[in-house]
Design a protein that fits this description.
Order of helices and strands: HHHHHEEHEHEHHEHHEHEHHHHEHHE
Number of helices: 18
Oligomer: single chain
Distance between the termini: 33 Å
Number of domains: 2
Mean pLDDT: 91
Shape: globular
Radius of gyration: 20 Å
CATH architecture of the largest domain: Alpha-Beta Barrel
Largest sheet: 6 strands, parallel
Strand content: 5-15%
CATH class of the largest domain: Alpha Beta
Helix content: 40-55%
Low-confidence stretches: 395-416
Bound molecules: iron/sulfur cluster
């Protein structure tokens, strides 16, 4: 289906009452959806049935997800005014899905100085950002305490900016380099000004899949250990999945089930962000290990399933305009999503992997897309405090980045330490 067809498909679902759609769905799926709409937790088998629903069943799933979204979080579409800062693209890890990493001898490898990073933060602040989101490659030449020192430098100049930074992979690397336990290391970063951690580097939380995607990457046990350690220290994280590559539907369901288990224990996840795999410039694609998957229905399945399966545990389901493009992301607002992510101001992890959505979304455009969906856009902080009435001075305006300002690595990118 092309974008217009997807839009028409979802608009038709929106205009049709639930009971009509339910009447056309299979009896088993109908029972599962009613269970979810009554606020009961779904089993993994029920989740699998929802995630793999097609045809009339999928129409009922999308409708139920939209109703659950309305009941759980209302009609506001939240977004954050933020800027990505990808401080280095030098990385030795070699994830097969990453088009962002460079070896240090490559001509376009970079490792930004503190001055460059501070200039980017200054620019973000001047444009009204409340958050900077920082991730980088895993640079073998990184000084052991680099992440801490970066935080100290940023917070000493910009005490009010929220620093959302360092994926679990980077935390693992930093802890190893400093020979610290995860808890001690994260506490040190928190005390130096770390506000929250992106729950990236999750990809699919299954070690057999991870072995193929990137055998050097943080494994499931370490990922869980790091995020739960952060939560125990009062440092909240997002949660993510990268879908549309090697995984089976069962892997997806188990991934979300693991997130539910963690959330029941810690309540530390602020949001869930499904991230579509961008295949073009990746080793996985070049080696023929993945087939491109048409965007549209799979994305609707993922977002609607996420809303229903995480119901009662993670309220904020974030769409990704970076992965889907702004127009398709806007469609997902009617399939369970309530958050439009951030303005980013610069993004090129996904661009490097072949994504074409661009690097900046103006607040005006987010407001327009929310309005078109019959909703209202509301700025939020990183931790989902609503910032009613605040109008970012320049963050609302698209700015074409200078070549110097362009860097790589996006929070939630399909690359990313
Ligand atoms: S995803 Fe991150 S860790 Fe993996 S190769 Fe890319 S930059 Fe390195």
């Amino acid at each position: 289906m092309n974008l217009d067809q997807i839009r028409g498909f979802v608009d038709d679902i929106e205009a049709t009452p639930l009971n009509v759609l339910m009447a056309h769905a299979s009896a088993a799926l109908r029972a599962t959806l009613l269970k979810s709409l009554n606020g009961l937790e779904l089993s993994t088998d029920e989740g699998l049935a929802i995630y793999t629903a097609t045809g009339d069943d999928l129409r009922a799933v999308i409708k139920a997800a939209d109703l659950a979204r309305a009941e759980d979080v209302g009609e506001e579409v939240t977004y954050v005014v933020n800027r990505n800062i990808n401080f280095t693209n030098i990385c030795f890890v070699g994830c097969q899905f990453c088009g962002f990493k460079r070896q240090k001898w490559e001509s376009d490898a970079y490792d930004h100085s503190d001055d460059t990073i501070l200039a980017k933060v200054a620019d973000a602040v001047a444009r009204g950002a409340t958050e900077v989101c920082m991730q980088g490659g895993i640079n073998p030449d990184m000084p052991a305490f680099k992440y801490r020192d970066l935080l100290v430098a940023i917070k000493s100049h910009f005490p009010d900016i929220h620093v959302h930074a360092f994926s679990p992979m980077e935390i693992m690397y930093g802890a190893r380099r400093t020979r610290m336990e995860y808890s001690d290391y994260i506490a040190m970063l928190r005390d130096a000004g770390l506000g929250s951690i992106p729950g990236t580097a999750a990809e699919i939380l299954d070690d057999s899949i991870r072995e193929v995607l990137s055998h050097k990457k943080v494994d499931v046990a370490a990922w869980v250990d790091i995020v739960t350690s952060a939560h125990a220290l009062g440092v909240r994280t997002t949660s993510t999945i990268m879908y549309g590559h090697l995984e089976s539907p069962r892997h997806v369901v188990n991934h979300l089930d693991l997130l539910r288990t963690i959330q029941k224990r810690t309540h530390g996840f602020t949001e869930f962000v499904p991230l579509r795999f961008i295949h073009e410039n990746t080793v996985l694609f070049r080696r023929g290990l993945v087939k491109p998957q048409e965007s549209g229905l799979l994305d609707l399945q993922m977002y609607a399933f996420s809303r229903l399966f995480l119901r009662g545990l993670i309220d904020n389901i974030q769409t990704s305009w970076v992965k889907l493009g702004v127009d398709l992301a806007a469609v997902t607002l009617k399939a369970g999503c309530n958050d439009f992510s951030g303005t980013l101001m610069e993004e090129s992890i996904t661009a490097q992997a072949g994504g074409t959505a661009g690097e900046f979304v103006a607040v005006d455009l987010i407001e327009e897309k929310a309005r078109e969906a019959g909703r209202v856009a509301v700025e939020r902080s990183t931790l989902y405090k609503k910032l009613y009435g605040r109008k970012a001075p320049n963050g609302a305006r698209p700015i074409v980045p200078s070549p110097q300002a362009l860097d790589n690595h996006a929070c939630g990118g399909s690359g990313g330490g």
